[in-house]
Design a protein that fits this description.
heterodimer; A: 521 residues; mainly alpha; two-stranded antiparallel sheet; 2 strands; 75% helix; B: 117 residues; 4 helices; elongated
Chain lengths: 521, 117
């Protein structure tokens, strides 16, 4: 019994058990519940880091549930793997790192931010369940298991979005939009899983990838999966839930929701790259993803410019930034069947897109946390009612500048690093796309200059003269993210080489994923 | 015969289309909930139809003749899971509809709408 081999399951089970323990702990000791949750998510973060070093140095980790042996993927006498298998390759662990970091910081931030709220035991239970759901989504190697974790994450996030819903109607409205979207997405994902099962009699991703015939039914499944997962990731034209739910959820939850929607993005890449790979028409699917990305970038940013609600504005920017990831990875997908183009710019474009996922989770999380800090002290999200807060909340202002500079792609912050890779490589694919991407970046900067001006600059306002800096735990969460943003911005090569490149190669090399499961066949 | 054999799948298509139709064109929150249930049921029916194997033995241990192999009940297990998840989803939608009705006094999606733009 080596504890190290059980880490893949521990990172799921620890938050899950803690989720059901937290109502009891909340009853016994209300004060320390938040601390307990932070410690649990901190442990999960440490375990994920250990798992990450393992996976990146020794290759993919697998964990077979309910088998005689945790590495026995293929029981003798059966035609295919039938057990639920967690398969953690470089791409999964890349998302897992984002998830565990974001959840840990969200729980730390909530220590002060949610202090005055009622029913915190429910809040923390749901937060932990959401952590379970998201980690499960990115670690699982089983299509049906993915659906279950998707639903766990959806239901927990809906309840969290409408958590404030007791005294006003808007959170319930935002939650309702998200649950409708999630329910459709969940049903359609299950429908696709059923199509795979009906044809191939297996649920395991690696096995499906191996036996995939790309029949007419597989095409239907592909269309359904791409559509609903793009919808769950908040891409235009299925983005209508994003501004509502991001703006109505508590700030820490918004940061987490950004990461959870990126887990859907991960699933989109996982299904297209691992399940279908070059068996489908990669040029067509790649272009569909590119067009979704360009639309998201452009419409997201233009909608963001006219917003007056700070969190709504940032939510539209989240839609816009999702476009960059879709663009980068879409270009990689479009040239997947063409080895020369893939080598010259395809891999680079994907590195940009995948690196942007992590950068986005960091700076968008930071921006939402600063928006939460402003709301925490001023009680409003309306930019027209704010002003002069830079005098009182100097740290928050600095963190906001860091986040805004990163999202606008200004060196030396991490947004610049990934956007530069995207521009360079996409330019070789199609110059027009790169120009649109740069234009969107400029518009992003314009919009954040406006926010900074109206919230932080100007003379002190009468009603905000007693506003203080936010409590330490909130500052800690923001400072950690700001630190990571700067480190990633200063040493992008290190990150790309050690974390991002293996993740991209794990997506591209379909055989590296299937071999782990079917190696012995 | 082809039509008869495919009857469950035709029903699946009808159920899911009805669900999508309800979601798009109906304005009442309760009807939207019904649309989602219809979609979920369509998917459940699809799974159960896939699980049927002609002239095979149902995986009920107490009922099966001895020393015969039974059908692997994966599809049924998936259906059960989806039913439970559907229950949770429905409960959540209805509770949100209750919250919206309390604050806006209506279930009409055009009227109960403050988040715009």
């Amino acid at each position: 019994m080596n504890l190290l081999t059980h880490i893949p399951v521990l990172v799921i089970v620890i938050p899950l058990l803690a989720a059901f323990a937290s109502p009891i702990i909340g009853k016994l000791n209300k004060k320390n519940l938040g601390l307990f949750v932070s410690v649990i998510l901190g442990i999960t973060l440490i375990l994920t880091l250990i798992l990450a070093t393992n996976v990146l140095t020794k290759g993919p980790a697998i964990y077979v549930f309910g088998g005689e042996d945790i590495s026995l993927t293929h029981p003798s006498g059966l035609f295919a793997p039938i057990r639920i298998i967690f398969q953690i390759d470089a791409m999964s662990i890349f998302m897992g790192l984002i998830a565990s970091l974001v959840f840990f910081l969200a729980s730390v931030y909530s220590l002060s931010y949610m202090k005055s709220h009622e029913g915190l035991e429910k809040y923390y239970t749901l937060l932990l369940l959401l952590a379970t759901g998201m980690s499960g989504m990115v670690y699982t190697g089983d299509t049906f298991n993915f659906f279950v974790f998707l639903e766990i994450a959806s239901i927990a996030s809906v309840a969290l979005i409408s958590f404030k819903g007791t005294d006003c109607g808007e959170p319930a409205e935002a939650g309702l939009k998200y649950i409708v979207v999630s329910a459709i997405a969940g049903s359609m994902v299950l429908f696709s899983v059923a199509i795979f099962y009906g044809q191939y009699n297996v649920l395991n991703m690696a096995t499906i990838a191996e036996v995939m015939q790309f029949t007419q039914l597989d095409k239907i499944a592909l269309i359904l999966l791409v559509t609903v997962l793009a919808m769950k990731a908040g891409s235009v034209p299925m983005h209508m839930w994003t501004p509502d739910s991001y703006s109505e959820a508590p700030a820490a939850i918004t940061m987490v929701l950004v990461a959870v929607s990126q887990a859907s993005l991960y699933a989109l890449f996982r299904f297209t790259f691992t399940l279908y790979n070059i068996k489908m028409n990669t040029v067509a699917v790649g272009w569909i993803i590119i067009i979704l990305g360009v639309l998201s970038m452009f419409i997201g940013v233009t909608m963001a410019i006219i917003q007056k609600d700070i969190k709504r504005l940032m939510a539209y920017h989240a839609v816009s930034q999702t476009g960059y990831m879709l663009l980068g990875v879409g270009v990689g997908l479009a040239v997947l069947a063409n080895p020369i183009a893939l080598e010259t710019f395809g891999i680079k474009a994907m590195e940009g897109g995948i690196f942007h996922i992590m950068n986005h989770a960091m700076y968008k999380g930071l921006l939402f946390l600063t928006a939460g800090a402003l709301f925490f002290r001023t009680g409003t999200r309306d930019l027209n009612k704010m002003g002069g807060l830079g005098n009182n909340m100097i740290y928050t202002a600095v963190f906001f500048i860091i986040g805004a500079a990163a999202i606008a792609g200004i060196p030396p912050f991490n947004g610049f690093a990934s956007k530069l890779i995207i521009y360079e490589s996409v330019y070789q694919f199609n110059p027009l796309l790169a120009i649109i991407a740069m234009l969107v970046s400029i518009l992003t900067l314009a919009s954040f200059v406006k926010v900074f001006h109206s919230a932080f600059l100007g003379p002190k306002m009468e009603q905000f003269k007693d506003v203080k800096e936010v409590p330490k735990s909130m500052l800690f969460a923001m400072a950690t993210l700001a630190f990571i943003i700067i480190i990633f911005g200063l040493f992008p090569d290190l990150v790309v080489k050690n974390i991002v490149h293996p993740a991209v190669m794990a997506l591209i090399n379909q055989s590296s994923y299937t071999e782990v499961i079917l190696g012995g066949m | 015969m082809v039509v008869v054999n495919n009857f469950p799948f035709i029903t699946v298509v009808i159920l899911i289309s009805l669900g999508i139709y309800t979601l798009i064109f109906k304005k009442n929150l309760l009807k939207i909930a019904i649309g989602i249930i219809l979609m979920g049921n369509g998917v459940n029916l699809f799974l159960v139809s896939l699980g049927y194997r002609h002239e095979s033995i149902a995986p009920i241990y107490t009922n099966a003749p001895e020393e015969t192999s039974m059908v692997m009940p994966t599809a049924q297990a998936l259906t059960l899971t989806n039913i439970v998840i559907g229950l949770a989803t429905t409960a959540l939608i209805l509770s949100l509809a209750v919250a919206i009705y309390k604050h806006y006094g209506t279930l009409d999606t055009d009227k109960a709408r403050r988040l715009r733009g």
